[in-house]
Amino acid sequence: MDHDIAWPGSVRPGGRTARVRESVLEVAGDLLADRGFAHLDLAEVAARAGVGKTTVYRRWRTPAGLVGDLLVDMAEQSLPRADTGSLIEDLMANARLVAKTLTDGRQSNLFRAVIAAATCDDATAAALRTFYDTRLTEWTPCVEAAVVRGEVPAGTDARAVLSAVSAPLYYRLLASGDPIDDEAAEQAAKAAAVAAAAGTFVTKQAQRA
Amino acid sequence: MDHDIAWPGSVRPGGRTARVRESVLEVAGDLLADRGFAHLDLAEVAARAGVGKTTVYRRWRTPAGLVGDLLVDMAEQSLPRADTGSLIEDLMANARLVAKTLTDGRQSNLFRAVIAAATCDDATAAALRTFYDTRLTEWTPCVEAAVVRGEVPAGTDARAVLSAVSAPLYYRLLASGDPIDDEAAEQAAKAAAVAAAAGTFVTKQAQRA
């Protein structure tokens, strides 16, 4: 059936479009997690999602286009930032969220597949950077509030603090293979908070100002 | 010419074997950096290195076997640890070394290719973990000496401290795309040193002891 043709009595296009996107992205995520980017085939995604091939090719064009949209969706679906009133607690919540994602079977495989794809595909690399931009920006107010509360100095680079929380967990996933457990998450959050309080993440630009 | 056959007057086998390995690994590294793991072909490596195909297949068997040996060689060729007498200076040297590697065109591509390969190939993942094991172990005495000097508390997990230095630089390379510059290297080293001094990397096990 060609889902591109609206039929009498069908739901409004907006709703259908959203449902098509949801099905396609779910299948794309499953295939990526299972077999990686190199084997992501738009025709197979269309068939498994029960969506017309034409729709998938017209809307997403390439595997990289599909992964890019999946990353947009993942950023949109991600949980909102914490707001506990304390930087260390906010960073702990962030670290636990990242650790949970990177230890979930499907999500962990999905991230590894997308990060691997980004190493050899510029469009995917750009989409991945946008994903992390969105997530880092979502959590930026935690650091800004800590500046207002006087927990960390003015001029602290929120993006650097939040990257410092995620980075050791990604390093375990992609490089050292060390376990991503609760102790690792706690250490990552505490190290970032302690260093931030000591002024380590005040940018050189802010120091000069 | 079949290099498997020793000819009269040729150098002793040990020297030739070492030279063959060096040529093969250099070509393998070039090809990986240029085109990634998926396109690494043993026959092409043999041809470009001017080495018999049989030698290459017999010694390295698979592309993953070749990458594994390349990582062993990279770990062996890596610079020795710093020994400045101060933890922050040692970590700064470590961070600058990692940053230099990850911003060098060939090395950066090579690491990205190998990390990407490790996400979908278990043998490469194991070889990559061994590489980081070797490097982290090489630098462990810097943290142990800092414990002796009283710069960081006893029970500090050297591997966690050193991972904390590398991690933000790898996160920039693979995830956020933020620049890996001198400020990033300095921040990574300082954040790890400050957190280590505050006891953040004392393991729970050591805390209980």
UniProtKB/TrEMBL annotation, chains A, B:
The keyword Transcription regulation applies. PROSITE patterns: HTH_TETR_2. Residues 41-60 bind DNA. One of its GO terms (molecular function) is transcription cis-regulatory region binding. Signal peptide: none annotated. Keywords: DNA-binding, Transcription, Transcription regulation. Transmembrane segments: none annotated. Residues 18-78 form the HTH tetR-type domain. InterPro entries: Homeodomain-like_sf, HTH-type_TetR-like_transc_reg, HTH_TetR, Tet_transcr_reg_TetR-rel_C_sf, TetR_C. It comes from the Bacteria. This is Transcriptional regulator.
